Amino acid sequence: MNLLIQALPIAAPTIGWAAHALFLVRRLRTARTDPLTGLMCREEFTSRAQRAVKRPHAAVLLLDLNGFKQINDTHGHAVGDQVIAAVGRRLAAWCRERGGFAARLGGDEFTAVVRLAPDADLDSELTCSLSARLSAPLETGSVTLSPRASIGICRTSHRPGAALSDLLRGADEAMYTAKRLGEHWRPAGPVDVYRTTNGRRDGRSGTRSGAHLTLLAPMRRNAS
């Protein structure tokens, strides 16, 4: 008992430091994680993705949910949050199976980096696998929904040596094209088609939009 009493003054600061360190680790993890989906936030994604795209067979994806504003307007934001959370879980699982990871950029937009074999069948991967998984019926408690997304993909093999920002721009342009054409997904070509920052056009007027695709600022907001 005397030894225990003598050890307490020494052990107490050590226990305190350990508890404080654990608190800091948890706080840092929270800062790097989107609270709704559990996916990493854009800053953490950027750091990891810049390394990941230098590896062989990497591909960058951008996803945007279709009709999400209507879901919010019709069923409320609580149901909208359930949709976002479910899409995040489903996307994360699909990415892990392909040696990759995903992030939520904000609103109903997501991004990911995965590894795909050079001979991978993209229609099978993105339509039969990813799109089908994302659109599986979701029971929210008040309504059953099938989330649907437009997907753009830019493979590093199509743009050798391209920076992450260029790969994201290509995926963004491909995603917007898929949305405009009503398709599940579209691939990016070796170069951007439009001379705008991210290639988006105003669907009503046909004029190019002034939206900017950046890694550190929000893209679109719930206007799908």
From TrEMBL:
Pfam families: GGDEF (PF00990). It comes from the Bacteria. PROSITE patterns: GGDEF (PS50887). Residues 56-191 form the GGDEF domain. InterPro entries: DGC-Regulatory_Protein (IPR052163), GGDEF_dom (IPR000160), Nucleotide_cyclase (IPR029787), Rev_trsase/Diguanyl_cyclase (IPR043128). This is GGDEF domain-containing protein. It comes from Streptomyces hiroshimensis.
